[in-house]
Structures
1.
Amino acid sequence: MRAAIYPGSFDPVTYGHIDVIRRAAEMFDLLHVAVLDNAAKTPLFSVEERVRMLRNVTRDIPNVVVESYQGLLVDYAKKNNIHISVRGLRAVTDFEYELQIAQTNKKLSDGSLDTIFLTTSLEYAYLSSSSVKEIAYFGGDISPCVPQEVAEQVYRKYQERGTDSAGC
Ligand code: ADP
């Protein structure tokens, strides 16, 4: 069985991520969407919330599993016997960072974890989780960027937090 892993923060999941997930799920028998639980970052959503949102918005794709992970991606990949990592490229500005991660993972895994890149579909090229949070924080419309159920949770989160903390 050919399995791949799509790692990320997904804080929150956007239509850009979902586009990558759908396309990668067509290419592999099983796609693990791995949500990074990183104590060094302060995300808007807890890892449990991010996993729940991702599971909901991918519920119609049968060969996708969503899990959180801590620590190194190479360890998660090894534990699950996965040799391909999928990442998305929006613009040339993503490239340097993504290349560095890909080469690091290759080295750390003794060559066993390779990375493939899916270029963004043009309609999502401008989309990032950070811009979604910024637009929502200032009361803008994020419905073109994220599914309705995700949009509701982003707005709710900022309402709960009040206006003292931007979070993005
Ligand atoms: P990270 O914090 O690891 O960069 P993100 O959740 O921001 O995680 O993104 C995960 C992956 O999805 C990255 O490879 C990123 O380049 C890709 N990605 C993010 N937004 C888009 C988009 N709009 N189109 C295509 N790929 C995207």
2.
Amino acid sequence: MSPAEEQSRQLADVFRATDRIVIFTGAGISTESGIPDFRSPGGVWTKYKPVMFQEFLDSEDARKRYWVYKKEGFPDFAAAAPNAGHQAIVELEKRGKLQALITQNIDGLHEAAGSSTDLIFELHGTERWVDCLECGRRYARAEVQEWLEAGTEVPRCESCKGIMKPATISFGQHLPEDVLTDAVVNSESCEAFLVIGSSLQVQPAANLCAIAKESGAWIGILNRDETPYDSLADWRSGDSAGEILSMMIELL
Ligand code: NAD
């Protein structure tokens, strides 16, 4: 048995014994769908300095810079389809084992794979929609991309001319309190908490695994690189998320 098969078997053994599993995902689950993670060299996320939320509100120039990188990053999102890792989580739900799916991702791929929206907690919002910050009118992100490609530099609401922003949480913006509360409650009450594809460096999201550990849950970390929380993990793998998760489902 290869080390990856052995790790998948161990994961399947833990998951067979419980139906209170919380999955916590980050950008690493979506790299196999072609979306670069935060740290990939050359990825759009590493090329531009992030625009802070207050800057975005205050300055037209900051809004211009923000939309330049949003425009450039969107084709990766639009072209991406869920991969074996996303599908394995859908399978856990079908088998009645998934308590909650907490994600830092904004790509909407869990929903696209077929995970139920009432189990998904998007801590950092979603790139699928753009909201008017004045009147709340919501636009499909793909529609706004067409405006950008036609030459609009800073989109404005068609109803009230208000400032518009994708429904994602920017640096300096508070996480939605209800979503964070639900994420904490699920982390406290689960029996197994598995991190998939996150460097666990963005707070407060990263600390959810420590909350789960303190509440007595088994902790697994499936991430290529080391994370600051590895020492509290009961199980760890640095292999590909898609590979380990699909083998785990076969063995479950
Ligand atoms: P991160 O980029 O900080 O870390 C991703 C981790 O995934 C890395 O440590 C890497 O080693 C690991 N990884 C990459 N591919 C993997 C694979 N196939 N199998 C296993 N591990 C793999 O991501 P983060 O912790 O999610 O934090 C980044 C922030 O940026 C988040 O807030 C997120 O909202 C945002 N972001 C989202 C997306 C997305 O929605 N897909 C993409 C980039 C960044």
3.
Amino acid sequence: MINIDNIRADFPILNRQVNGKPLVYFDNAATSQTPQQVIDVIVDYYSNYNANIHRGVHTLSQEATDLYEDARLKIQQHFNAKHSYEILLTSGTTHGINLVANGFTSLLDAHDEVIVSALEHHSNIVPWQMLCERTGATLKVIPMTTDGELIMNAYEALLSERTKLVFVNHISNALGTINPIETIIQKAHEVGAAVLIDGAQSCPHIKPDVQALDVDFYVASAHKMCGPTGVGVLYGKEEWLDKLPPYQGGGEMIDQVSFEKTTYAGLPHKFEAGTPNICGGIAFGAAVDYMNAIGFDAISRYEHELLEYATAQLLEIEGLEIIGPKDLKNKTSVISFNLKDIHPYDVGTILDKMGIAVRTGHHCAQPIMDFFNIPGTVRASFAFYNTKAEIDALISGVKKAKMMLS
Ligand code: 7TS
């Protein structure tokens, strides 16, 4: 059970006023807010432990290294990875995807095909297009229905012995669709293709089990799950991480360096060149602890209640259309909507005047907007620290925007 008063007390920013009104933060799919427990870890790190890691004999460096590696273990446990060295700490989802896309350059050729879905964020499209340009491989796209759900028959028809990689997000950032990744992974493996799942939008709501999924790569960003910006995770199966070459060269990722030849460090350091976001990694571990203490079952159950409550009320507003799955079982707490003949940006601007933060536009998913032939949507995305009273404020804000703009 969510104790909403206790939870809200953990988030100092929720006491803010915006434009003279209490902040209603419904842009959680862009970035989540940070609880005091995580802020305290950041302050404690810079107050007491700040040093470079993996290299110093001195006490501070050893303590900082222990904290950083302890965070990796927490993240390993959270994702249920078999080995801690399969957990690479990155700067975020985008970094993780680019690392894998770059690594596959020498493993693909013009005969090969890679598959993405019609529901992807640009960061799960562009790096694969760049990979295809480098290798001559062909990019195929799993189409979707007008409800924003992937057409699985079409996916199966795309798969062949040419398919080398499949990239799909677990949950769409633009529409909230939960994709059937278990089936997607299983079918890809039947033709010998590797699968990368973009978990940027699922990890705030769901605890993924990478071993049960049997997924090859899974990426996420800390800043969408109560952690800081500039840090994230790439889980990779050991056999794949061994096959891929390093992404960046530099300090930390080497075994021996001479001008004739350099040999690389083992996992995970082979992929972690340079000084990482040490404090960010430690705070990511604290964020994972914080969310697990609340519990992902309780989080997703509560968020689903918010989704049902908001959907029912929004649909009562005449001329309002929700884009995405009609069946709320296939959806997380993201609502993308439009008011007939009104530009989403105008709605967002009026909501901001009322202290309500939503995102408007294409949400870095232009192909989705093109598919629906719309310039963008208004997106309200809820987290476990939001309330029904805040949704009431959104509903009256949308009604007011409609009145002012029609
Ligand atoms: N993949 C998905 C599904 C995302 O939603 C995002 C960010 C990314 C990748 C990129 O994550 P980053 O942490 O590397 O930037 N999505 C959003 C959004 O929906 N609004 O702002 C950022």
4.
Amino acid sequence: MTNTPIFVTRPSLPPLEEFLPYLEQIWDSGIVTNGGKMHQDLESALANHLRVPQVSLFGNGTIALMAALKVLGLTGEVITTPFSFVATTHALKWNGLEPVFADIDPVTLNLDPAKIEERITPRTSAILAVHCYGNPCDVDAIEAIAARHGLKVIYDAAHAFGVDCHCGSVLNHGDLSILSFHATKVFSTLEGGAIIAPNIKMKECIDRSKNFGIVSETEVESIGINGKMNEVQAAFGLLQLLRVDESIAARARVAARYDAALAGISGIDPVPSSGQLRANHAYYPVRVKPSFAMGRDGLYEALRKYGIFSRRYFFPLISSLPMYRDLPSASPSNLLTACAAAEEVLCLPIYPDLSEVDQDRIINAIGEASL
Ligand code: T4K
């Protein structure tokens, strides 16, 4: 068996010669950032593709999330999931907001609406939920709670590019949603991100926030930041967008092969896709159950010996990190489902160019580890 490394993901890069004409246009124009033509074109192409009212591009998903929290004027406490990438909670803390962790649903691994209400206090201003692995949250239940208590809802939709739930694009839910276009994502601008806004007024406010709060040469309206995406990133996005449906279809084929092959291996339970009318197969998470003799970490190490670099997204749990673990809501006894998920989940490699030969290497290695 060859040991050529297989990583959890690989960016799908277009042929370089297809990118060069975009670069020539940028070079010719001399406009390389600050909302040039590529940036404008990508915003409208994405709004169209994703069927959302407004897109505001950012330099990465984290700065998009930080800006989203800022423009909503949140204060005090925000209820969130501990089962996510650390950027979710860091963005709260970076804004001076107090994260309050609530447990997750055992099937979807998203915030459990039944656990949100008990965490609401007079200081709560919002719910920050994550569509983990691209599986939509229970948006109806979350938004009903928010409406009852006058809270804002922000969705960290970093994983949810192109995902539809029962009523169309999942990105149309909440006050704001954010996307990540990092190199490891389904749709990438190398580094990048966006806020999905419900109307032009909100988009204008977001656009100012990412450009220092500037309104005109002589007016600065608010304390903004520099969150802008540059023209080269935006051009890359325009090119990627031409192929994104093809990429998602290729991911779906990889996922279907895993589904079939892993069904016969006891103790390896794929995290079900749930609530999606259209999935994006951003990740292929499985739960390594106690019945799998060597356990999750044993399997992770065994795969590494074969040159297969799966990832334990999301371990360690954010609430167990040194800067968060002393929060009252971080107590593991309040987060039993999240703690169990963090100990069991393993994300297997999935990306459009994963060959069947390489996927068979992964499947066979898991099969051997199960003996
Ligand atoms: N919210 C959520 C829920 C998120 O998951 C994320 C990011 C964010 C917010 C923040 O969005 P950004 O600010 O990042 O736009 C990765 C990504 O860096 C991160 O974007 C992502 N989530 C997170 C889940 O995964 P790492 O530290 O695991 O990535 P890294 O560099 O180890 O890459 C994984 C594998 O991918 C590598 O082993 C090899 C391969 N790879 C990676 C890169 C960067 C490549 O083949 N080429 C590449 O250029 O965090």
